[in-house]
Sequence to fold (300 residues):
Amino acid sequence: MNYVVGIGEALFDCLPEGRKLGGAPANFAYHVSQFGLNGCAISAIGDDELGEEIIEKFEAVSLNHILPVVEQPTGTVKVTLDDKGVPQYEICLGVAWDNIPLTDEMLQVARQTRAICFGSLAQRSEVSRKTIHAFLDAAPKVALRVFDINLRQHWYTADVIAESLNRANILKINDEELDVVATMLLGVSTEPGRLIAEDPDKTRAVCRDLIAKYDLKMLILTCGAIGSYVFTDTAESYVATPKVKVADTVGAGDSFTATFVAQILLGKPIPEAHQKAVQVSAFVCTQAGAMPVLPDELKK
Fold:
């Protein structure tokens, strides 16, 4: 088993300072590769200049990729930042990553995969959802299957989330998303951002209920400036969020997920993997765009 795969959207984030390559699964694959693992980005592109540019950028950083060309245009997202650098997304419809076809090459890679990261956004279309499910089902049973939920706008349903959790063994979620999922799947009555802010014990209980209900190995909960947690059925790790000068937070969560998974695959214990993930995501917040080169001291 050689590959660590991010499957789903590959696109360009159109930021105030210009166009940056992004998409959560692509970000994940890129950052995993910075730790010496065999990252692979799987998506789809259009027969256009943006698609060619994505291939050029992946090849420039020696990132493995499977990017079939489809009729739809390469995806773009308009990103605006608030005064704290937190992004808001305007996501275009009918784009290439909504139409990822399942190919023999993908299935060959799936059977050689150590870990897979996927989210909810690319599953808004039936075509890409079926491809993602088929890829997950073809991977070895021992592979890590990380559902980095990434709820965006209204592009998700309870069925998609539940089906994804049934195929996953690790859930990565933020505090606002946890409120949504707790209401949808556990019947917990809450409001956005209230669980962790007002009732940490209830938050822990919700996380452990999700672990038990969906037979997860672990649940990773990020809470912005407060800190982050990693829960297993018996243990808990907490790391406070460092204070840094934020350029933007685009891709910071993806770098966290990638770093954590990379460290686990490299044999590090959960607390050490967690600490490294926090350090890397804090660095990414100080840089523009989702795919900065990490300094050597973070890659050691």
